[in-house]
């Protein structure tokens, strides 16, 4: 029997995308139960469950194969939360759609959006990340912005107040990489330092404990060699410039007997 590894499934997905859409997929993001992709021609495609409008196709009908989102051909990058989607265009504008119960779409309301809506009028967005119900984004000037659910301080604004529109996180202008988990967030600065904030019930903040929460970015250790970071539900992983991979936080599936790291 053929054994399907993660690499095999990834190649199969890319092959399928190539056959179902007009150009090769260059970027893919997977949410709770939906997937979106950007292709070489700048078009955006989506499929999967759609009960909150997370596909952005103007309806709540789920899709079993990729369907194009609108007709625009200038999509650049995309990120997915549990039930919402955010994407950047080549003109530096930021767009979002889907569930907005906590303001994660960022257009000032808690109304779900069935098609992409622009977030503000700024044209200097360069990167975006989506957590479970919150969103993070970077601007060209190196500032970090966040909005959406904030019950664990995952926005990093120093409070636990939800935000319906982007608010700046601190005053730093050196943010370079960002990631959003379920209730925590992480980021790397241009000086190679690593920062985390939000929920810490599983040790996902990497500060040696599993208690409390941090409502503002806090540095992890003193290392200045971090290059990128990613967040899961209750864990965090990061790369250093020497190619080593580091992980911490929740390490268990139900019944697996795993432990925190």
Structural commentary:
The protein is mainly beta and about 260 residues long. The chain folds into two domains: about 25-100, no CATH class; about 125-260, Methylamine Dehydrogenase, Chain H (7 Propeller), CATH 2.130.10.30. About 5% of the residues lie in helices and about 45% in strands. It has one helix and 19 strands. The protein has one helix at about 5-20; strands at about 25-30, 35-40, 45-50, 65-70, 75-80, 85-90, 95-100, 115-120, 125-130, 135-140, 145-150, 165-170, 175-180, 185-190, 195-200, 215-220, 225-230, 235-240, 245-250. The strands form five sheets. A four-stranded antiparallel sheet has the order 1-2-3-4, covered by helices on one side. Strand 1 (about 25-30) and strand 2 (about 35-40) form a beta hairpin. It is globular and about 45 Å long. About 45% of the residues are buried. Mean pLDDT is about 90; it is low at about 1-5.
Which helices and strands appear, and what pairs or packs with what?
Blueprint (H helix, E strand, L loop, with lengths): L5 H15 L4 E6 L3 E6 L4 E5 L14 E6 L6 E6 L3 E6 L4 E5 L14 E6 L6 E6 L3 E6 L4 E5 L14 E6 L6 E6 L3 E6 L4 E6 L13 E7 L6 E6 L3 E6 L4 E5 L12
Antiparallel strand pairs: 1-2, 2-3, 3-4, 5-6, 6-7, 7-8, 9-10, 10-11, 11-12, 13-14, 14-15, 15-16, 17-18, 18-19
